[in-house]
Amino acid sequence: MCGICGAIATGGGPIDPHAVRRMVDALAHRGPDAWGMIEAPGVVAAIRRLRVIDLATGDQPIASEDGAVEVVYNGEIYNHEALRRELTARGHRFNTRADTEVLVHLWEERGPKLLASLEGMFAFCIVDRRRREVFLARDAMGVKPLFLRRLPGMILFASETAALRRFEAPAPTLDPARLVDLVALQYVPGRRTPWLEIEKLLPGESLLIRPDGEERARWYQPPPAIPESDDHARPPAETLRRLLEEAVLAQSVADVPLGVFLSGGLDSSGIAALLARAAPGRVRTFSVGFDNAPGHDESVEAASVARALGTDHHELTVSASDVARVLPDAIAHLQEPVLDPALLPTWLLSRYARREVTVVLSGEGADELFGGYKRHLYQQRLGWMRMLPGLAPLARTGRRLGFLSPRVGQALEALGTSDPVRNHLEWSQTIARSLAGTLFDDDLVERFEEDAYATFAPYFEAAPDALSSRLAADLSEWLPHDLLTKVDRATMAFSLEARVPYLAGPVVRFVSQLPDDLKIRGMESKHLLREALSDVLPPRVLERPKKGFDLPLAAWLRGPLRDLADEALSVEALSRWPGLKVREAAALWTRHRAGGQDFGLPMFNLLSVSLFLARHGA
Fold first, then answer.
1. Is 2 among the catalytic positions?
2. Which residues contact 200 (CB under 8 A, 6 or more apart)?
3. Taking all residues of the chain, what is their mean pLDDT, rounded to a whole number?
4. What is 2-173+193-218's CATH superfamily?
């Protein structure tokens, strides 16, 4: 795992390598073991490497036999051995054992079509001196990030936005409407970022830059679900089990110590169980618990699963004071707000696990593939309520007057929304549309709603009310832009590589096409996954309902985070926030602090963005 960055002169002019060196220095935490640079006409690209495969000869950049093609690359290609055998048979010579080297030889053979051959997580830059081409690409599910910034006559790219800001150029401009995204969704959907001049290369997207222009392409999108059918060559649970076993085995290959993030829930326990069967010796597992918060602490369940599986278990207990200390540090390091509060315990757990291992397997992706969230159950069972007249206005009134909690009010507001796109957004937002209107200027809320609707609408065109449409939206937006971003930032802050077996290509392609009733059956979520893992996990894990990484935010904000929040959510501090209704936001904090209503999650998001603006807003 690594960090990459670079500058491409679209007109072929010179680039100062020292400017790119400043960029790559901002990524040292992603790759503390080595660094390297490509210098070619019109492009300079750099790499910070974390050695995981081929510790001795795998440093980058890596070139083709004649040196015409070079690559810097972040990720893991899990089928690189098979590709190596195929390319060797075609006459290519390999000088390393690294998975990186297959990229340059595949490029020589197939050009941009090489992406169809890759199984893995990656973001890379290939420089072809002979063709005078630069090729940027990102993996199918967006496990590894890649950001772009356009300057006059130049394109910058990097694994983190902090590296883009090291290049000598005017500071990027914050977009106030995207700050609404951050509070309302916890992420910015689609290609956008909080800055007008910075964008994402999307999951499954590539960018080919030639002297005569650019070609941006989506090389992968999850396949649509097929109609309900019992016509399977073998039982779906049997096929899924085999694919998961192969994914865990492939992703357990490393020349460094490896472990598993274990919460005690179905997803991570399944990964640990399959790894314990496949890997020799005792599997190392790592969990995090919360001090003095028994209702939110899953460490007991994790320890129970670890005992059942016989793993070498390590447990970290996090206090509210730990979280209060790490939040400003994380914002300073990331140069971005922390919008998913689960990043903070993941951050602390990553630092803890890095003492023992360099690679961890994690359970992200299962909820989005199999319909694991409670909101999907509610949407399936309570969708008829959208026919009740006046439900949404009643919910808004109840929330405003305080006789409905914010989350219950938001759920009822969602149930009263008939449009499938807005219905999905209402269910999945951090805050209800009506609360967003209370907190932000009308024109910003309108921009937020229009942009979000335009981004999400395509997922609902084929089957507006189907579970498969909601899961496609989750897989394409919530998963890469929030969950995978959280894991990437938290783990790579401490040079820890995270792998996600549920998002292996064969698993995603198989599950995405299955009918909805194999994912949610009755009131049981993740039906097929439970069936596939039924003989490797204790019954209490298989029967346990989805709990989620729920944090005691309300108590933390009224406790150890209170002083920090009092300062960051004061009228004076909030006044630096363009488009925020300052007095309404400060009043919401006063209501939460007094204990009358729980606005923990929106308050945390307001706090985080306010801290970010104080440090990095300019």
1. yes
2. 145, 146, 147, 148, 191, 192, 193, 481
3. 91
4. Aminohydrolase, N-terminal nucleophile (Ntn) domain (3.60.20.10)
